[in-house]
Every structure is written in structure tokens, then in C-alpha cells.
Amino acid sequence: MGGPRFFGTGRGALTAYGKGLVVALAAAGLLAGAQPARTTGARGGPVPPPVVAGPLVAGGFRSERTFPEVAEPVRVRIPQLRVDSALQRLGQAADGTIAVPSRVEVAGWYRLGPRPGQPGPAVILGHVDSRTGPGIFAGLSGVRPGALVTVDRADRSSVTFRITEVVRVPKVDFPTEAVYAPTLDPTLRLITCGGSFDAARGSYRDNVIAFADLA
């Protein structure tokens, strides 16, 4: 299969995890055909460590709820899209942006953020297409609110989320705060590329982002 058509590069704003830990994250670079959106791609600097179990502080509000430690995610399933994919572990690229999956048919989980089921926004990226065909998140822009997303974990447990909103936004206006800001409960973001294709740059102009809460 031909490689993904790289790359979108929306730049994101700073976000805070926990007590004032300021970080810049990037969901940009998802293949030229596979960038996510409220549909946007974002770039940024240093990334945060995984969120740990225990009380979480966000925006001045403190939660006394605790969440157990959870195993790493290994697979994502979205029945409405017929997606059933192993998950690559994604870190940071040399420029500080989030790395993207190495194969268009496989999704990836951003391992420096929360694990699915921990409080905070877990992020899963997938390509929309490549030069030779559709990518794993080719249908993300058409998914309907209410669709279920199940993430299987290394200890054979699983967690299910329900999509609440799908948006497409220009990469230059990537909603960094909405995507990466801390949440008191476990949430999930699915990101790929979308919109029109810029042949000169070899990337899509927009990102598609699906927001999901625990089902």
C-alpha cells in the first residue's frame, strides 16, 4: 500500500493538565488524507506525562473521584465505521509534534497523554487515506453522534465511549483547548484529516475531530 500523503500542520495553543502544567500538543501531521478534526490538526511543543489515578484539578475545580490505574490500549473498534484496528503507540516527532501512525490502515494512541479510561482526553489518531486508497479513519467525518467506540486494553479489559460531536475545522484554527484541555472524567478524541486536498503542500486543509464521553 502506498504511503500516506503527508502532512497538515495546524498550530495549537497552550493547554494545561492538572495544576498548571502547561503543554503544547499537536495532532497535526496525520497523513495527507487522514487528519482529524472538530476537524483540525495542531502542532505544539512539549507533551504532558500520562494522567495518573487520583483527584484531578482542572480549571479551579477539584474532583475527589478516583479512577483505577488502567492498562495500555491495544485495539480500537468502531462498529458504525467497521473499524477494528490494532493501536500503535505514538510519541513525539523530532519537532515536538505528535507522531502519526506509520501505516494508513492502523490507528495510533498518543502514549504521553491519558490512557483511555483515565481522567482526561485520550487521543487516537488515524489516516484518512493514502495515494492508493482509504485509511483507517476514512469514514470518521460521517460518523453520527451516538456511535460507540470500544478500546481494548493489554489486560483484556475494555472501555466504551459514545461519540457526542464530530467537527471539521481548518488546521490553522485547530481547537487545541477543546481537544487537549483536562477533563474530570475519561474522554476520547479521534482525529484525522479532512476537507479539500492541497496538492501543492501534499496535505488536507482541515482536520476532523470526533469527541466522545464514557458510554
TrEMBL record:
- Keyword Transmembrane tagged: no
- The answer to whether keyword Hydrolase applies is yes
Which classification does the entry list for the species? Bacteria, Bacillati, Actinomycetota, Actinomycetes, Micromonosporales
**What organism is the protein native to?**
Actinoplanes octamycinicus
Could you tell me which InterPro entries the record lists for this protein?
A: Sortase, Sortase_dom-sf, Sortase_F
Supply the alphabetized keyword list: Hydrolase
Q: What is this protein called?
A: Sortase family protein
GO MF terms held by the record: hydrolase activity
The lineage's top-level taxon is: Bacteria
Family annotation (Pfam families): Sortase
